[in-house]
Amino acid sequence: MMQILISVDPSTKFLYGIIEYLNSKTINFDVIEIQPSDDSYESAKETILNLKKGSSIIFLGHGREDRIYGGENLPSYEKKSLASREEMKIFEAQNIFILACNSADLLKSTFMLCKFQKSIGFGGLPTSEEEVEDDKKLSLIGISPETISKFKSAIVETVSGALEKYCVSGDNSFYYLKDNLILLIDKKINYAIFEENDRNLADLLFNMRNEISLY
Questions:
Q1: How far is Cα 156 from Cα 15, in angstroms, rounded to an integer?
Q2: CA torsion angle for 80, 85, 87, 93 (degrees, to 10)?
Q3: Cα gap 189→86, rounded to integer Å
Q4: Burial class (CB in 10 A: 0-12, 13-18, 19+), 1
Q5: Which of 79, 98, 108, 124 has the smallest number of CB atoms closer than 10 Å to its CB?
Q6: What pTM value is reported for the model?
């Protein structure tokens, strides 16, 4: 059974759209929430460690090249590392899909040490105005709040669709998951260019597509 691991954070609330979509399609999966509390962080780690080897784990949340984060609720609880590079061994012998910024770099640096079965990661996924402002290239081309909103919706739609196909196909290969995700993103890129005339959205989707990595 697929396991969805989601960090509870106002800035990633939109990712619950993936869970809602899969529920609407009666896909069989479990949800592990990392709430903004120390107890929830520890409980999530314990649950992960006790999962059957060879499980498919889908992480939805924040990350960077050296860690993934748990829940956050400012100002009372600032997000903390759920798993640093060294702690990624909690996913040993699992199939791990990490929908978080710079997760491809994290997986590249840990897949040999942690002995994942297969893993899929991403590059930058700018889903807030602050993240766009921090990226010099994106800030120069003028990504609007409307485009960011469309990009977030496109992330939810493409990842949801790819996960649905992955679950109903009976093909447990992450190659199949990656190929379907790329196909769905390509369709969104074409729609952004030819139907919405939103080149900036197409560029964000193109970057997302090109930076998907499988190890």
A1: 6
A2: 130
A3: 36
A4: exposed
A5: 108
A6: 0.95
